[in-house]
Amino acid sequence: DRADALPYDLAGRRVVISAGGTREALDPVRYLGNHSSGKQGYALARAAAQRGAQVTLVSGATSEPGEPAAVDIVHIDSAVQLEREMIEHARDADIVIMAAAVADFRPISVAGSKIKKGDDGPAPIRLDTNPDILAGLVRARSDGTLRRETVIVGFAAETGDADGGVLDHGRAKLRRKGCDLLVVNAVGDGKAFGTDDNTGWILTADGQETALPFGSKTLMASRILDEAASVVPHG
Ligand code: CTP
Ligand code: CA
């Protein structure tokens, strides 16, 4: 990926990206988490900054060794914190990208002190449903909290199952979320999670489906930004 070949088409644009996994606390030392590496979101942040955008990266847990250059970074732990930061920073954004792996559920309460093993064996962990941040951003745009011109991009990591293939699940998710673009990745068999390469499709709300050729997450990032930039209104 040659930096000198990058377009400078996002100059002056505000891009807000979430990346990495959320951690849902159980007690002061334990959490429920996931294996998200944050690589795709960080690659998007770097690529958007190189294309001239003013980038805010809202980052959960990642395996990234450092912070990307020329990017404002905000660190979060939980989905509830991520939601608050996304709504706050998305207010004046041109493009919002939800690349974070958000826990669907969180423990119903956080113990104030370390949970002890005790004599009775493990207590069940009761869970509450986390807010759907992506759907919430789309709602915020409809009710005027976000600007109507803001382009909202979601991600979906899917496997095929008895209900349909990866693309079927992606199409249904795009409709359910109401975002403008959905990046669909095929996962399982070591694909996507924690790897440097990614493959999938970009689906648009108006029914276009573009296959993403197998390549690095950096290459994926520029394809995703090409697509998002092409739907950002001019001016
Ligand atoms: N997402 C979100 N808030 C959540 C869960 C997911 O904003 N509580 C976002 C993710 O960042 C991603 C998109 O929604 O951009 C799709 O996430 P995914 O987990 O695939 O969708 P879910 O609606 O949680 O559906 P599933 O039952 O397949 O997990
Ligand atoms: Ca989910």
UniProtKB/TrEMBL annotation:
Which keywords label this protein?
Decarboxylase, Flavoprotein, FMN, Ligase, Lyase, Magnesium, Metal-binding, Multifunctional enzyme
Q: Please indicate if the UniProt record lists Kinase as a keyword.
A: no
Q: Which domain of life is it from?
A: Bacteria
| Pathway per the UniProt entry | Cofactor biosynthesis; coenzyme A biosynthesis; CoA from (R)-pantothenate: step 2/5; Cofactor biosynthesis; coenzyme A biosynthesis; CoA from (R)-pantothenate: step 3/5
What are the required cofactors? Answer: FMN; Mg(2+)
Task: Supply the EC number(s).
Answer: 4.1.1.36, 6.3.2.5
Tell me one GO molecular function of this protein.
phosphopantothenate--cysteine ligase activity
Domain DNA/pantothenate metabolism flavoprotein C-terminal, which positions?
10-229
Q: Which reaction does it catalyse?
A: N-[(R)-4-phosphopantothenoyl]-L-cysteine + H(+) = (R)-4'-phosphopantetheine + CO2; (R)-4'-phosphopantothenate + L-cysteine + CTP = N-[(R)-4-phosphopantothenoyl]-L-cysteine + CMP + diphosphate + H(+)
Task: Answer whether the UniProt record assigns the keyword Hydrolase to this protein.
Answer: no
**Residues binding CTP:** D104, K114, P131, D132, I133, L134, F155, K173, K177
Q: How is the cofactor bound?
A: Binds 1 FMN per subunit.
Region labeled Phosphopantothenate--cysteine ligase — which residues?
15-235
The Gene Ontology biological process annotation of the record reads: coenzyme A biosynthetic process; pantothenate catabolic process
Transmembrane stretches in the record are: none
List the record's Gene Ontology CC terms alphabetically: phosphopantothenoylcysteine decarboxylase complex
Q: Which family does it belong to?
A: In the N-terminal section; belongs to the HFCD (homo-oligomeric flavin containing Cys decarboxylase) superfamily.
What is this protein's function per UniProt? Catalyzes two steps in the biosynthesis of coenzyme A. In the first step cysteine is conjugated to 4'-phosphopantothenate to form 4-phosphopantothenoylcysteine, in the latter compound is decarboxylated to form 4'-phosphopantotheine.
UniProt name for this protein: Coenzyme A biosynthesis bifunctional protein CoaBC
- Source organism per entry reads Gordonia humi
